[in-house]
TrEMBL record, chain A:
<dbReference type="InterPro" id="IPR036569">
    <property type="entry name" value="RpiB_LacA_LacB_sf"/>
</dbReference>
<dbReference type="GO" id="GO:0019316">
    <property type="term" value="P:D-allose catabolic process"/>
</dbReference>
<dbReference type="GO" id="GO:0004751">
    <property type="term" value="F:ribose-5-phosphate isomerase activity"/>
</dbReference>
<dbReference type="Pfam" id="PF02502">
    <property type="entry name" value="LacAB_rpiB"/>
</dbReference>
<protein>
    <submittedName>
        <fullName>Galactose-6-phosphate isomerase subunit LacA</fullName>
    </submittedName>
</protein>
<comment type="similarity">
    <text>Belongs to the LacAB/RpiB family.</text>
</comment>
<keyword id="KW-0413">Isomerase</keyword>
<dbReference type="GO" id="GO:0009052">
    <property type="term" value="P:pentose-phosphate shunt, non-oxidative branch"/>
</dbReference>
<dbReference type="InterPro" id="IPR003500">
    <property type="entry name" value="RpiB_LacA_LacB"/>
</dbReference>
Automatic annotation (TrEMBL), chain B:
<dbReference type="GO" id="GO:0004751">
    <property type="term" value="F:ribose-5-phosphate isomerase activity"/>
</dbReference>
<keyword id="KW-0413">Isomerase</keyword>
<dbReference type="InterPro" id="IPR036569">
    <property type="entry name" value="RpiB_LacA_LacB_sf"/>
</dbReference>
<comment type="similarity">
    <text>Belongs to the LacAB/RpiB family.</text>
</comment>
<dbReference type="GO" id="GO:0009052">
    <property type="term" value="P:pentose-phosphate shunt, non-oxidative branch"/>
</dbReference>
<dbReference type="GO" id="GO:0050044">
    <property type="term" value="F:galactose-6-phosphate isomerase activity"/>
</dbReference>
<dbReference type="GO" id="GO:0019316">
    <property type="term" value="P:D-allose catabolic process"/>
</dbReference>
<protein>
    <submittedName>
        <fullName>Galactose-6-phosphate isomerase subunit LacB</fullName>
        <ecNumber>5.3.1.26</ecNumber>
    </submittedName>
</protein>
<dbReference type="Pfam" id="PF02502">
    <property type="entry name" value="LacAB_rpiB"/>
</dbReference>
């Protein structure tokens, strides 16, 4: 599986750790980083919406700005992820394609595990799909 | 302040406690639901909170579901909303100071009411600290959604609710 990964300067170090970790687990990485968090996030959104990539991770200082940017898009569900429960549940229930991580919030080892939980967990579908259809009707 | 608050059926009890806390702090609270534990759908309440904030009927919004993710995505998809789904005070304050966030959210199954009270208090007290760079980023975020019917069309989700009633969505 290929994962789109991006960071700005504030998230670069943590992003590189996640990159090495996921490469070591056998995932392919497309690094779409940019100094401007708006461009970095838009790069990952574009990879999900137009390039057939199913998982994206954006890293900055708090994970808030990339969430605000990605979640505005039709067809995107984005999850700021700070702990284990969200890292997998947001795949199972929300079909989330992009998580955001904050270098000021989660440390390196936990962040790598959150990223792995996210990329390896599948969507449950079923009753949850009505909520995704509703999100896609909003925008 | 006038604060809109919403949740799904997973965390209604947590939402009620958060609303009580806000009232005790002297705020006017508009609770958009849900009001019980009967299965419903988070986009209904995220959109309602987002609409009240985007139209200026509420100063700020609070969105809580199990992880906070679903309902805050629903709020964020309303034009004019800048939502932050957080698990700690520092992130909540940064969201206000740097991005002038107008909706704060969290996961009611992720953090407890003590953390939620700290986050709400800090978020409401924090103020946006503008710079030209921050203003430009906020303008870009707000500009990502073209004008659409999400705010004015209260029948936005009716077709999906009808399909739900008909059994279209099942596990």
């Amino acid at each position: 599986m290929k994962v789109a990964l991006a960071a700005n300067g504030a998230g670069a170090k943590l992003k590189d750790s996640i990159k090495d970790y996921l490469l070591g687990k056998g995932y392919e990485i497309e690094d779409l980083s940019h100094e401007d968090i708006f461009i970095a996030t838009e790069n990952v959104v574009d990879a999900i919406l137009t390039k057939g990539i199913t998982r994206g991770i954006v890293v900055d200082d708090y994970g808030v700005a990339p969430f605000m940017i990605a979640a505005k898009h039709h067809g995107i569900v984005c999850a700021p992820t700070y702990e284990d429960y969200t890292s997998s549940m947001t795949r199972r229930h929300n079909s989330t394609q992009i998580i955001t991580l904050g270098a000021n919030v989660t440390a390196e080892k936990l962040s790598c595990e959150l990223a792995e939980n996210f990329v390896k967990t599948e969507y449950d579908g079923g009753r949850h799909q009505i909520r995704i259809d509703m999100l896609n009707r909003e925008v | 302040m006038k604060i809109a608050i919403g949740c799904d059926h997973i965390v209604t009890d947590i939402k009620i406690k958060a609303a009580e806390f806000l009232k005790k702090q002297g705020h006017e609270v508009i609770d958009v639901g849900t009001y019980d534990f009967i299965r419903t759908h988070y986009p209904i309440y995220g959109r309602k909170v987002g609409k009240l904030v985007a139209t200026g009927e509420a100063d700020l919004g609070v969105c809580i579901c199990g992880t906070g993710i679903g309902i805050n995505n629903a709020a964020q998809k309303v034009k004019g909303v800048r939502a932050a789904c957080v698990a700690d005070v520092q992130t909540a304050v940064a969201a206000k100071e740097n991005l002038n966030a107008n909706v704060i959210g969290c996961g009611g199954r992720v953090i407890g009411i003590g953390s939620i009270e700290y986050i709400l208090e800090a978020f409401l007290k924090a103020e946006y600290k503008p710079t030209p760079e921050k203003d430009a980023l906020i303008a870009k975020i707000d500009g990502l959604i073209d004008d659409n019917d999400c705010i004015e069309n209260d029948a936005l989700f009716d077709e999906y609710l009808k399909k739900w009633e008909e059994g279209y969505y099942h596990d």
